[in-house]
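C-alpha cells for chain A. Residues wanted.
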C-alpha cells in the first residue's frame, strides 16, 4: 500500500510518479469509486506537496479556476485586491493541482488552462494581466469518469496535453487485501464481501449491471457498516438502495442472497 492507496499492478505507482516527476499533466481515467481521488491524494503525499482541488461542474467558470477581485480595507481606504484561485495558487507555490471530473466542465471553460498544461507552464491572468510562471514543483492531475450522465467528451486539444492512465476497480489479491486492511472483521465476513464484490464486477463485465454498482467505495462502505449491523442491511444501505433500475436491483439482491 502506497500512502493509503493500493495499486492493482506493481509498476503503476512508480510509473505515475515518473510522469509527475517529469512535470507531465496526468489524466486518471476510470469508473466512479475506483479510487482516482484517493490515488491523487497519495501521489501528492508521496511528493510531500499540498493539493489544490477543483470539482468541475457545468457552473465552473474562470473565477472558480483563477480567482476573483474583491474590495478590502487597508489603512481605512477601500482597495481592490485579487484573491488567488486554486490554479493560480498552485502555480505560484508549487502545489499539485487536482481537477476532478474534468469532463463535467463546459468545453469553453477549460482552454484557459492550455498554456498551463503544455511546455509553457505559464498563465496570463485575464483579471489582472499578470503573467504567472509555474513554480518548479507545480504538477497537474485530473480525473474523468467516462460515459456518465452530465459528462462531455474532452476537447482533443485539452486531452492531448495529458498523459493518461486507466484506473480500474481492484480485483483479486489486491482487493482482498484492501478489504482486510479497511476494517477489523472476522475472515468469514471479509470472504462474503470479497465474493460479492467479485461477482458484481463479473456482472458489470457481462453487461448486466451498470459500472458504478461495482464501486469499490460502495463495497468499502458496506464492509465498514457491517461491523455495526448485519451484513445484509449494510449492503442494502451502501449498494442496493442506490440502484434505480428494477432489474439491476433484483440481480444484486440475488447475488447477495447467494453469498450471505
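Reply:
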Amino acid at each position: 500500500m502506497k500512502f493509503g492507496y493500493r495499486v492493482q499492478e506493481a509498476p503503476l505507482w512508480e510509473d505515475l510518479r515518473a510522469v509527475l516527476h517529469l512535470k507531465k499533466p496526468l489524466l486518471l481515467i476510470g469508473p466512479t469509486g475506483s479510487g482516482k481521488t484517493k490515488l491523487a491524494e497519495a501521489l501528492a503525499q508521496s511528493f510531500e506537496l499540498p493539493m489544490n482541488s477543483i470539482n468541475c461542474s457545468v457552473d465552473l467558470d474562470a473565477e472558480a479556476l483563477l480567482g476573483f477581485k474583491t474590495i478590502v480595507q487597508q489603512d481605512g481606504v477601500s482597495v481592490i485586491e485579487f484573491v488567488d484561485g486554486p490554479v493560480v495558487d498552485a502555480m505560484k507555490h508549487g502545489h499539485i493541482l487536482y481537477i476532478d471530473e474534468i469532463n463535467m466542465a463546459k468545453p469553453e471553460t477549460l482552454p484557459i488552462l492550455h498554456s498551463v498544461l503544455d511546455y509553457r507552464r505559464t498563465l496570463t491572468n485575464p483579471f489582472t494581466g499578470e503573467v504567472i510562471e509555474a513554480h518548479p514543483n507545480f504538477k497537474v492531475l485530473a480525473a474523468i469518469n467516462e460515459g456518465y450522465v452530465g459528462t462531455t467528451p474532452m476537447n482533443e486539444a485539452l486531452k492531448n496535453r495529458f498523459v493518461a492512465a486507466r484506473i480500474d476497480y481492484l480485483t483479486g489479491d489486491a482487493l482482498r487485501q484492501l478489504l482486510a486492511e479497511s476494517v477489523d472483521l472476522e475472515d468469514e465476513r471479509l470472504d462474503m464481501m470479497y465474493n460479492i464484490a467479485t461477482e458484481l464486477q463479473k456482472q458489470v463485465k457481462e453487461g448486466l449491471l451498470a459500472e458504478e454498482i461495482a464501486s469499490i467505495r460502495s463495497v468499502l462502505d458496506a464492509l465498514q457498516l457491517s461491523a455495526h449491523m448485519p451484513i445484509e442491511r449494510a449492503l442494502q444501505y451502501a449498494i442496493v438502495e442506490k440502484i434505480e433500475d428494477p432489474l439491476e436491483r433484483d440481480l444484486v439482491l440475488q447475488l447477495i442472497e447467494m453469498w450471505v
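Residues 12-166 form a domain with the Rossmann fold fold (CATH 3.40.50.300). The radius of gyration is 21 Å.
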